[in-house]
Design goal:
single chain; 418 residues; alpha/beta; 7-stranded mixed β-sheet; 4-stranded mixed β-sheet; 35% helix; transferase; Aspartate aminotransferase family protein
Length: 418
């Protein structure tokens, strides 16, 4: 893998695009970001024409792989008739009905574009319903780049004033955050027991800590949050932008049997197109008819909703999740076994088709992971296997046993050189 054209493209991009990439963390790829010209199935081709097995999958949306013909056919048909129309159209309710049919607690939804936007909509609904202003989130958990939630990003940020996740953020909004620790039932009980005094409107939780190590909830954690929210008049919000429709058709509610008041979905819902939604109780959602503002020129655009409708139709087949689980368990077994050949190599956490590299004795986080991952990342790229700087691994129905076996063989070759 020469990577020369990508290096030149990155240098050119830096002269016109801030940081040289469309989203900041893409710049963390060593030796430099990969630039691609084509993507099909489980593979991408770079500007030099070299092919890579892709475990980035657009940072999560592509559960069906690149260019699934069922999604592209639906989008192409709509695109010839309309793009953005500024009026109602049938796909608004057809796509909504498909999503609500899949989600156990889905009574109504609101369309949005990105996960960051939809999280803000969900929190606005919670504040309006409760008359309170604060949000309880969990340390390390990422809920978008907005000032109001991009804070408390370190593991030891629990139960103390939230600190901003980056420069340029407004410090004035951080008083609205209360930061707990994921899977710490006792701390959640104490903080939510003071919900009235602390003015807590919502609990915002990623049920599997998708951006903070892919940590599954302990057996009682989510159910305890549900009980505490009911007891203290707090709205329970699941951030399922990454996990939703990836770990199960009905998301975390289906997988773990706990129904939140609202869920935020994105990524996998639209098969590679830009769309998000806030899904849940009708009384909360319907506040948009009585004073809660929800707007956006590109909300519910026909092309994206054609992709949602087609994707949800495919995901209604249980065999899709059997296939996802099969290839993901193969990856964990085969590639994980290579890592397991030495206690120094690390391991994987896995929830369904979402995995996270965990270094030996190290920690994971939104911006990357320690240990050998930087070496693995570049070494595998040079052998034709594309992974994410953060150590997350996304599988799709387009990945095959042959892809996984080749990945394990390449990793074994690489680790033998260390």
């Amino acid at each position: 893998m020469a990577l020369e054209s990508s290096r030149s493209a990155f240098e050119r991009a830096r002269r016109s695009v801030g940081g040289g990439v469309g989203s900041g963390l893409r710049a963390a790829m060593p030796p430099h970001p990969l630039f691609v010209r084509e993507a099909r199935g489980a593979h991408v081709w770079d500007l030099d024409g070299d092919r890579y097995v892709d475990y980035v999958m657009a940072w999560g949306p592509l559960v069906l792989g690149h260019g699934d013909p069922r999604v592209l056919s639906a989008v192409s048909e709509v695109a010839t008739r309309m793009q953005v129309v500024g009026t109602g159209h049938p796909l608004e309710y057809l796509a909504a009905e498909a999503v609500l049919e899949a989600v156990p607690h889905g009574e109504r939804l609101l369309w949005s574009n990105t996960g960051t936007e939809a999280v803000q909509v969900a929190l606005r609904l919670a504040r309006a319903a409760t008359g309170r202003r604060r949000v309880l989130k969990f340390a390390k958990s990422y809920h978008g780049w907005h000032d109001t939630v991009y804070a408390g990003m370190a593991e030891d940020d629990c139960d103390r004033p939230a600190t901003p996740g980056g420069a340029g953020q407004s410090a004035s909004v951080l008083d609205d955050l209360v930061v707990a620790r994921f899977n710490d039932v006792r701390l959640a009980e104490r903080l939510l027991g003071e919900a009235v005094e602390r003015d807590i409107a919502a609990v915002l939780v990623d049920p599997v800590m998708s951006n903070a190590g892919v940590e599954a909830p302990s057996p009682q954690f989510l159910s305890t949050l549900r009980t505490l929210c009911d007891r203290h008049g707090v709205v329970l919000v699941f951030d399922e932008v990454i996990a939703g429709f990836r770990i199960a058709r009905g998301g975390a509610a289906e997988k773990y049997g706990v129904l939140p008041d609202l869920s935020v979905f994105g990524k996998a819902m639209a098969g590679g197109f830009t769309q998000s939604a806030v899904v849940g109780r009708s009384d909360l959602i319907d506040q948009v008819t009585s004073g809660v503002v929800h707007a956006g020129t590109f909300n519910a655009n026909p092309i994206a909703l054609a992709a949602v409708t087609a994707t949800m139709r495919v995901l209604a087949d249980h065999a899709v999740y059997e296939q996802l689980e099969g290839v993901s368990s193969e990856f964990e077994a085969l590639v994980g076994a290579v890592l397991g050949s030495s206690p120094d190599f690390g391991s994987f956490n896995r929830v369904g088709s979402l995995l996270q590299y965990v270094p030996a004795g190290g920690a994971t986080g939104l911006h990357g992971t320690s240990g050998l991952w930087a070496v693995i990342l570049e070494g595998m790229l040079r052998q034709g296997f594309l992974f994410m700087p953060s150590g997350k691994v996304f599988l799709s129905t387009a990945h095959t046993t042959a892809d996984v076996e080749a990945t394990a063989e390449a990793l074994d070759r690489l680790l033998r050189t260390l």
